[in-house]
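Example 3.2
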Amino acid sequence: MKLYRANVRGRLGKARPRATDLPVQLIVPLRDAYVLPDLTEDLQRWAPRLWRREIDAGHWVQLSHPHEIASWIAEFAGFVDGRQYNEYSE
């Protein structure tokens, strides 16, 4: 928490608008106690090529849902690379 506070608090007051036209995938855990889903609303204006995906999970979603996250990453990477998506397999 100290690292988070040191890096985020001071910047929030001096935040500048920053946008990207690169594809962005945002995975939103709906039960995250630290980063509330509401904080990720309206990001489309900063990243118009945003893929927003919601999942019923807590903060450490990569630990609780590794296969689903890996599948989403593979699908997104394939899209960005211009390839057809193939279902993630172990």
